[in-house]
Amino acid sequence: MIEVKGWQKTSLIDYPGKMCSVIFLPYCNFRCPFCQNPGLVKNPEEQPSISVEEVVEYIESKKEWIDGVCVTGGEPTIHKDLPELLEKFKSIGVFVKLDTNGSNPEMLKELIKKGLLDYVAMDIKAPLEKYHIAAGVKVDTEKIKESINIIKNSGIDYEFRATVIPRLHKKEDLQKMAELVKGAKKFAIQQFRPNITLDESFQKEKPYSNEELEEFKEMFKGFFEKIEVRS
């Protein structure tokens, strides 16, 4: 069974409209320089483990006010036994949200087919031609496109989101990123926080102002059913 390497018992911001528990899974196939969970990516074996049983028991005991669980990382979909983990949460009757980079459409398809997901949040890292820069590794962008289509046509709740950073994302890059998921139910533009990053040089990066993020939101208003800024 997958090891849980981080656990936030309650959160009001990680699952839209729900009080949830957040679990962090180790390892990632990307090396995004702006990653805010570097310990889960670089040296997860050094992070303390939490038993899945403890998490499940806690959520089940607090079900009168915890609605769901958000499974994040790291990249959850690289774990072959992810379906088994999610089945444990579904068996106690809570909603399941998955955070993903979209690199594993096969796993996404399996999870949706088995009815193990209620919400998916997929990160859009960059325009396709610059994905390798933002992800820090070579990326099969056909898989990114496939995941986008799977999510859009899944029939479950979802969002696409982009953490925007001046060094990586100019206005024309954001235009291409928005066009990549145009027509989606929901798109979130997220503020970059330089306090903890995988590449330490990004800790000196000045984020876009909230006003600039609002300008980007106005630019892409007609692209989506709903668009929001998370600052």
Description:
With 231 residues, the protein is of the alpha/beta class. The protein has a domain at 6-163: Alpha-Beta Barrel (TIM Barrel). The chain contains eight helices and eight strands. It has an eight-stranded mixed sheet with strand order 1-2-3-4-5-6-7-8. Helix 4 runs parallel beside helix 6.
Q: Please give the number of β-strands.
A: 8
Shape designation: globular
Can you summarize the main beta sheet? 8 strands, mixed
Alpha-carbon distance between the two ends: 35 Å
Number of alpha- plus pi-helical segments:
8
CATH superfamily of the domain at 6-163: Aldolase class I
And the CATH topology of the domain at 6-163?
TIM Barrel
CATH architecture of the domain at 6-163: Alpha-Beta Barrel
Low-pLDDT segments: none
Strands side by side in the biggest sheet: 1-2-3-4-5-6-7-8
Give the SSE string. Answer: EEHHEHEHEHHEHEHE
The radius of gyration computed from the alpha-carbon positions, rounded to a whole number of angstroms, is 17 Å
> What is the mean predicted local confidence, pLDDT?
97
Range of helix content:
25-40%
Top CATH class of the domain at 6-163: Alpha Beta
Q: Per DSSP, what share of the residues sits in E-state strands of 2 or more residues?
A: 15-25%
What structural class results from the helix and strand content?
alpha/beta
